[in-house]
């Protein structure tokens, strides 16, 4: 089984009824249902880790938008994933402060340790490595996020510790 | 009203207008790419920057509302510098491949680069390249040229009502595309070509054909439907290379349907370019004189009431009045233009025209469609309905075949005449909607009239219009929607059975001995009796010509000057764009020439005289424009409401892309038909 197959298993499932209902309510809460689209996409992503074509179409229908319109929103934001990601997403800041403080070394270390380049997922579907714009943690550069946790002053040792602790 | 000073010129514009509109009112030209007056405002190209006094930096005039006392400057050093900077950004990723781009010569980016472009680029990095998209057989894409103005996205979403286009990603990676790779399912898709300010969306059939300055432009009228879209035919030499819409706010705004825009390649295929006479069961090429003699021979000894004539859907008024006059001189009462067998009452014009007028749709506040599919029968008119729908509070009811998406929300009330009875008796909820509306509209289509109880349906619709208050002194909400371009003119001329005359059905199966078909192709020729002598006058070797004993080669609408009356009853003139091929001739001249052969010379021998004759037959042909009117006489058309049948209304036209002899001969339309109307298995996404 390839990485893509490991990750994409849930893509064609329809959204669970509870989630559909939740998204519908999110839309009802707004004057224009489409105003809830970002939150709805986030909800789908929390459930399925990424937003598949089928799910995007379903959400568009629930919020009275066209799929093309919603895809415009989904692709606009970096953190709405329109392709499968692993169980954990590692966002490595690539802004100037982190770059000055040696983020390239971290990237090389990660690539060596995990065997993937930025944008790829480990074959076991565990970690996806993505570069990200400034995390706002420049005073503790270089910075990264693993899942929802922000880590600063990262060096290779700390990086190993973070990966092992969360793994 | 707000008073605004633009470059020292005082103008007054309505509150809520944009600065750009104020500048235009002052006669100042503002460069723009994303702004389009018939679409929503996006404000993303930044080309329309102007200086507004007291504003700290230049403002995008398209999206900036005016305020009373505002002072605007459109041509200062700051404005010029800002626009130059915007242009430099736009050109960073533009390929500058003008020599191989079809937009060259009529490109907004090219034109404005003359005013605001630099003579060289400071950008030495690699330019971005974008994969082309598939938008169907009509629109060619070169997405690398796209400047992301999103006019196409807004057009598809707002006007065409098919929200299939979108802009994905952000910044430099932004791309326009269909969400799923597939042809854009709209009958108005050709307008994307006009609306694109650069060469990203161009015409596929016109690709690499010509430069705009090589083309001769002739004003004409589209005859592919009965909307009467104002068009401009662009030809080089003897060949039509493209057709574009002309702006007419009362009819088509600036839109045009795909069939009218792209079916012209049918002009050069299956053409009848010389007369033919059937000898020993086989059609043989002949000279004009021989063809006329053969017809005269066929007419010999035939009594007037055994002669008949049928006018087709694409005829000009001139040829129809000439043929009618010829038939009258031959003593024939057998005339008909209703190939589909529709029932009309022609005692008053308001019984068969679109009385609200197309522009009037925007003033209506409720709509009932009876037996019509405006999306396919009149796509441009449908865009007007959608425009009204988008303005809000516009309930729409449909009685008829539940067809595909009309591009707006409509309530299906019923599929058979019983629903009309229900509305009349108030048993259906929609009756209340119509009654409470101040300016309701009822639109009756041909599918409702082309049936045995057509007269009853017509009468019922009028009665309903009267009872819900659609007929008032200042409002006429009763409308008939035609889809044959010649139909209203034919009814105005009286191309209908005279006293004791036969209709189309009566002329079939040997009902007449001699039958003159003027471009009539919309019935199965086998219905004509085997012993009937058939004359086919027309431009294409279609159904009618195959059955003919004599073929007289006529001209298409592009090859003759003609008068057409649209579904509203608006009389419009078309000019000749190209010469008819071979020996083909202008149609009324053929009839006039033949009348001389049999010694019944028609009393006109130039175009002005024929048109004078038209006005004599019906004064409406002398009326310019279309004054809006309310309803005077409230008495309805003949027809017994009690005679309403129970059969469901048939669907409207079958295949939108192949409705007449020209479009059936067009390879482009055949390809569209293959792509759009035949079910294809969708590839897995």
Automatic annotation (TrEMBL), chain A:
<keyword id="KW-0560">Oxidoreductase</keyword>
<keyword id="KW-0411">Iron-sulfur</keyword>
<dbReference type="InterPro" id="IPR036249">
    <property type="entry name" value="Thioredoxin-like_sf"/>
</dbReference>
<keyword id="KW-0479">Metal-binding</keyword>
<dbReference type="Pfam" id="PF01257">
    <property type="entry name" value="2Fe-2S_thioredx"/>
</dbReference>
<dbReference type="GO" id="GO:0046872">
    <property type="term" value="F:metal ion binding"/>
</dbReference>
<comment type="similarity">
    <text>Belongs to the complex I 24 kDa subunit family.</text>
</comment>
<feature type="binding site">
    <location>
        <position position="98"/>
    </location>
    <ligand>
        <name>[2Fe-2S] cluster</name>
    </ligand>
</feature>
<dbReference type="InterPro" id="IPR041921">
    <property type="entry name" value="NuoE_N"/>
</dbReference>
<keyword id="KW-0001">2Fe-2S</keyword>
<keyword id="KW-0408">Iron</keyword>
<dbReference type="InterPro" id="IPR002023">
    <property type="entry name" value="NuoE-like"/>
</dbReference>
<dbReference type="InterPro" id="IPR042128">
    <property type="entry name" value="NuoE_dom"/>
</dbReference>
<dbReference type="GO" id="GO:0003954">
    <property type="term" value="F:NADH dehydrogenase activity"/>
</dbReference>
<feature type="binding site">
    <location>
        <position position="138"/>
    </location>
    <ligand>
        <name>[2Fe-2S] cluster</name>
    </ligand>
</feature>
<feature type="binding site">
    <location>
        <position position="93"/>
    </location>
    <ligand>
        <name>[2Fe-2S] cluster</name>
    </ligand>
</feature>
<feature type="binding site">
    <location>
        <position position="134"/>
    </location>
    <ligand>
        <name>[2Fe-2S] cluster</name>
    </ligand>
</feature>
<protein>
    <submittedName>
        <fullName>NADH-quinone oxidoreductase subunit NuoE</fullName>
        <ecNumber>1.6.5.11</ecNumber>
    </submittedName>
</protein>
<dbReference type="GO" id="GO:0051537">
    <property type="term" value="F:2 iron, 2 sulfur cluster binding"/>
</dbReference>
From TrEMBL, chain B:
<dbReference type="InterPro" id="IPR006963">
    <property type="entry name" value="Mopterin_OxRdtase_4Fe-4S_dom"/>
</dbReference>
<dbReference type="GO" id="GO:0051539">
    <property type="term" value="F:4 iron, 4 sulfur cluster binding"/>
</dbReference>
<keyword id="KW-0479">Metal-binding</keyword>
<dbReference type="GO" id="GO:0016020">
    <property type="term" value="C:membrane"/>
</dbReference>
<feature type="domain" description="4Fe-4S His(Cys)3-ligated-type">
    <location>
        <begin position="78"/>
        <end position="117"/>
    </location>
</feature>
<dbReference type="GO" id="GO:0051537">
    <property type="term" value="F:2 iron, 2 sulfur cluster binding"/>
</dbReference>
<dbReference type="InterPro" id="IPR001041">
    <property type="entry name" value="2Fe-2S_ferredoxin-type"/>
</dbReference>
<dbReference type="InterPro" id="IPR015405">
    <property type="entry name" value="NDUFS1-like_C"/>
</dbReference>
<dbReference type="InterPro" id="IPR000283">
    <property type="entry name" value="NADH_UbQ_OxRdtase_75kDa_su_CS"/>
</dbReference>
<dbReference type="Pfam" id="PF22117">
    <property type="entry name" value="Fer4_Nqo3"/>
</dbReference>
<dbReference type="InterPro" id="IPR019574">
    <property type="entry name" value="NADH_UbQ_OxRdtase_Gsu_4Fe4S-bd"/>
</dbReference>
<protein>
    <recommendedName>
        <fullName>NADH-quinone oxidoreductase</fullName>
        <ecNumber>7.1.1.-</ecNumber>
    </recommendedName>
</protein>
<feature type="domain" description="4Fe-4S Mo/W bis-MGD-type">
    <location>
        <begin position="215"/>
        <end position="271"/>
    </location>
</feature>
<dbReference type="GO" id="GO:0048038">
    <property type="term" value="F:quinone binding"/>
</dbReference>
<dbReference type="InterPro" id="IPR036010">
    <property type="entry name" value="2Fe-2S_ferredoxin-like_sf"/>
</dbReference>
<dbReference type="Pfam" id="PF09326">
    <property type="entry name" value="NADH_dhqG_C"/>
</dbReference>
<dbReference type="Pfam" id="PF10588">
    <property type="entry name" value="NADH-G_4Fe-4S_3"/>
</dbReference>
<dbReference type="GO" id="GO:0042773">
    <property type="term" value="P:ATP synthesis coupled electron transport"/>
</dbReference>
<dbReference type="InterPro" id="IPR054351">
    <property type="entry name" value="NADH_UbQ_OxRdtase_ferredoxin"/>
</dbReference>
<keyword id="KW-0411">Iron-sulfur</keyword>
<dbReference type="InterPro" id="IPR050123">
    <property type="entry name" value="Prok_molybdopt-oxidoreductase"/>
</dbReference>
<keyword id="KW-0004">4Fe-4S</keyword>
């Amino acid at each position: 089984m390839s990485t893509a197959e490991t990750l994409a298993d849930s893509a064609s499932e329809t959204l669970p009824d509870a989630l559909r209902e939740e998204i519908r309510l999110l839309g009802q809460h707004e004057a224009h249902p489409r105003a809830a689209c970002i939150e709805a996409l986030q909800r789908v992503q929390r459930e399925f880790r990424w937003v598949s074509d089928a799910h995007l179409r379903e959400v568009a229908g629930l919020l009275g938008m066209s799929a093309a319109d919603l895809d415009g929103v989904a692709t606009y934001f970096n953190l709405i994933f329109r392709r499968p990601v692993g169980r954990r997403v590692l966002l490595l800041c690539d802004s100037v402060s982190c770059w000055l403080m040696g983020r390239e070394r971290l990237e090389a270390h990660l690539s060596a340790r995990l065997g993937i380049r930025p944008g790829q997922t480990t074959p076991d579907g565990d970690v996806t490595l993505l570069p990200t714009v400034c995390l706002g943690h420049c005073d503790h550069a270089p910075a990264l996020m693993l899942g929802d946790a922000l880590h600063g002053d990262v060096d290779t040792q700390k990086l190993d510790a973070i990966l092992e602790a969360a793994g | 009203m707000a008073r605004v000073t633009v470059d020292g010129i005082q103008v007054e514009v309505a509150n809520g207008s944009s600065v750009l509109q104020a500048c235009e009112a002052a006669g100042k030209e503002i460069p723009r790419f994303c702004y389009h007056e018939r679409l929503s405002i996006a404000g993303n190209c930044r080309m329309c920057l102007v200086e507004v006094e007291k504003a700290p930096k230049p403002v995008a005039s398209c999206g900036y509302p005016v305020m009373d006392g505002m002072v605007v400057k459109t041509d200062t050093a700051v404005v010029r510098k800002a626009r130059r900077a915007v242009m430099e950004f736009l050109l960073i990723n533009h390929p500058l491949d003008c020599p191989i781009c079809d937009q060259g010569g009529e490109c907004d980016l090219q034109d404005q680069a003359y005013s605001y472009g630099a003579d060289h680029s400071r950008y030495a990095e690699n330019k971005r390249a974008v994969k082309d998209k598939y938008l169907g057989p009509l629109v060619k894409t070169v997405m690398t040229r796209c400047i992301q103005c999103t006019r196409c996205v807004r057009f598809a979403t707002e006007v065409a009502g098919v929200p299939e286009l979108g802009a994905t990603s952000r910044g430099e990676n932004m791309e326009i595309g269909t969400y799923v790779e597939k042809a854009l399912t709209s009958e108005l898709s050709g307008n994307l070509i006009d609306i694109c300010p650069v060469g990203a969306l161009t015409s596929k059939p016109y690709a690499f054909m010509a430069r705009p300055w090589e083309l001769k432009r002739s004003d004409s009228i589209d005859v592919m439907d009965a909307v009467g879209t104002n068009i401009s035919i662009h030809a080089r030499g003897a060949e039509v290379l493209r057709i574009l819409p002309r702006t007419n706010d009362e009819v088509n705004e600036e839109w045009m349907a795909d069939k009218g825009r792209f079916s012209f390649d049918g002009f050069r295929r299956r053409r009848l370019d010389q007369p033919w006479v059937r000898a020993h069961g086989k059609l043989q090429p002949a000279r004009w004189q021989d063809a006329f003699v053969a017809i005269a021979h066929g007419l010999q000894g035939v009594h007037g009431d055994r002669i008949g004539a049928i006018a087709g859907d694409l005829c000009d008024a001139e040829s129809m009045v000439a043929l009618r006059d010829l038939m009258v001189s031959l003593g024939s009462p057998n005339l008909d233009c209703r190939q589909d067998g529709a029932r009309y009452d022609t005692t008053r014009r308001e019984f068969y025209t679109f009385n609200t007028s197309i522009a009037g749709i925007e003033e209506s506040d409720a709509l009932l469609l009876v037996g019509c599919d405006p999306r396919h029968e009149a796509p441009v008119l449908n865009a007007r309905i959608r425009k009204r729908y988008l303005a809000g509070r516009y309930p729409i009811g449909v009685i008829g075949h539940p067809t595909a998406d009309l591009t707006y929300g409509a309530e299906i009330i019923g599929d058979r005449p019983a629903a009309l009875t229900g509305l009349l008796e108030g048993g259906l909820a929609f009756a209340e909607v119509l009654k409470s509306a101040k300016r309701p509209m009822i639109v009756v289509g041909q599918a409702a009239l082309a049936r045995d109880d057509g007269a009853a349906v017509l009468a019922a619709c009028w009665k309903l219009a009267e009872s819900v208050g659609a007929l008032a002194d200042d409002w006429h909400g009763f409308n008939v929607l035609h889809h044959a371009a010649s139909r209203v003119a034919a009814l105005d001329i009286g191309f209908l059975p005279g006293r004791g005359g036969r209709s189309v059905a009566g002329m079939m199966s040997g009902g007449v001995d001699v039958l003159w078909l003027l471009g009539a192709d919309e019935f199965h020729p086998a219905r004509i009796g085997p012993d009937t002598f058939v004359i086919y006058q027309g431009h294409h070797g279609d159904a009618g010509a195959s059955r003919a004993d004599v073929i007289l080669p006529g001209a298409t609408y592009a090859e003759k000057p003609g008068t057409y009356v649209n579904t509203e009853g608006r009389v419009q003139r078309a000019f000749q764009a190209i010469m008819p091929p071979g020996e083909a001739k202008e149609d009324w001249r053929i009839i006039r020439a033949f009348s001389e052969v049999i010694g019944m010379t028609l009393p006109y021998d130039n175009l002005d005289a024929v048109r004078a004759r038209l006005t004599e037959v019906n004064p409406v042909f002398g009326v310019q424009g279309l004054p809006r009117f309310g309803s005077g006489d409230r008495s309805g058309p003949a027809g017994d409401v009690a005679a309403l049948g129970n059969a469901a209304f048939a669907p409207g036209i079958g295949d939108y892309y192949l409705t007449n002899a020209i479009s059936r001969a067009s390879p482009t339309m055949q390809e569209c038909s293959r792509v759009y109307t035949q079910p294809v298995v969708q590839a897995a996404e």
